Amino acid sequence: MQTSKGEKISQAVIVFLMLLLCASVIYPFMYMLSISLNVGSDAAKGGVYLWPRQFTWANYEIVLGNVVIRHAYLITVTRTLIGTLAGLLVTLLAAFGLSYERMPLRGVLLTYVLITMLFSGGLIPFYIQLNEMHLLNTFWVYIVPGAFSAWNMFVMLKFIQGIPAALVESAEIDGANPIRVLLSVILPLSKPMLAALALFTAVGHWNDWFAGAFFVTDQNLIPVQTFLQQLLSAQNISTVLGSNNNIESLARGTQLSNVTLMSIKMATVMVSAIPILCVYPFLQKYFVKGVLIGSVKG
């Protein structure tokens, strides 16, 4: 089938616009990468845009060698792993229970969950609630509030309801209890959906700086994104890395004058962004499949 001249022009315009969109997304990333790999004093002169002019690992040596950043990184990784698993487990159990139409007060519970998704009490009541639960300034303030997601619950509920009822009924006839049905029937068929929601949940935990900034005062409990937010308002390197760190030894002989606050910021941004970006290729096939299944099942 031959395409008309107008269709070719429209396709060329679409391709051009998509290339511009890709360039607008990739360029800031490449700029930050080039600054982080360039000598700070040289980058401060300008002219470093897509590749480093004077290559160096000193910025990353300082960032990864700093105990504060390493600990913040550990908090972020631990929070992301535990928070994602807890969020999927709690939300899946709620969705599976509400998928049974004969469940008592099912309509009332669904309405209650829907109200919490549409309306919020605000930051101050939420803060008071966390204080009453003794979660403030603890690691669990990152985990417990996000252990249940109303939006994810409705997505899971819709997906579970799309699974043929005959599969569940046959398992129940064979004597399977609800837990057995969940483990043997629902979970194997829900991998694409769970992978997609796990990706969204993990990215949310990884990128969240708000909880660490407002609900935690102990610097030993802040995640790397909160540290990055604090770094943006810093005035000098000592404020960022701490006055007790031997910066010269961390830089392995590099003169402190060659390292700037901007180069440290860019290195910290890259260190905090690259790991979560590496997760996407491993979940891509499940992610795409899960999104498509959710769009066609009624």
What topology does this entry show?
Layout: H1 5-36, H2 40-43, H3 58-65, H4 67-98, H5 106-118, H6 123-132, H7 150-162, H8 165-173, H9 178-189, H10 191-207, H11 210-214, H12 224-232, H13 237-241, H14 247-250, H15 261-296
List the keywords.
single chain; 298 residues; mainly alpha; MetI-like fold; 15 helices; 70% helix; globular; disordered C terminus; MetI-like_sf
Architecture overview:
- The protein is mostly helical and about 300 residues long.
- The protein has one domain (about 65-295): Orthogonal Bundle (MetI-like fold).
- It is about 70% helix and about 0% strand.
- It contains 15 helices and no strands.
- The chain has helices spanning about 5-35, 40-45, 60-65, 65-100, 105-120, 125-130, 150-160, 165-175, 180-190, 190-205, 210-215, 225-230, 235-240, 245-250, 260-295.
- Helix 4 (about 65-100) runs antiparallel to helix 10 and helix 10 (about 190-205) packs antiparallel against helix 15 (about 260-295).
- The longest helix has about 35 residues, at about 260-295.
Q: What is the highest CATH level, the class?
A: Mainly Alpha
Instruction: Note the main sheet.
Output: none
Number of strands: 0
Q: Tally the structural domains.
A: 1
Helix content: over 70%
| Low-confidence regions | 243-254, 294-298
Count of DSSP-assigned helices? 15
Strand content: under 5%
Distance between the termini: 34 Å
CATH domain topology: MetI-like fold
Helix/strand-derived category reads mainly alpha
- The assigned CATH architecture is Orthogonal Bundle
On the 0-100 scale, what is the average pLDDT? 83
Overall, the morphology is globular
- Gyration radius, rounded: 25 Å
> CATH homologous superfamily?
MetI-like
Order of helices and strands: HHHHHHHHHHHHHHH
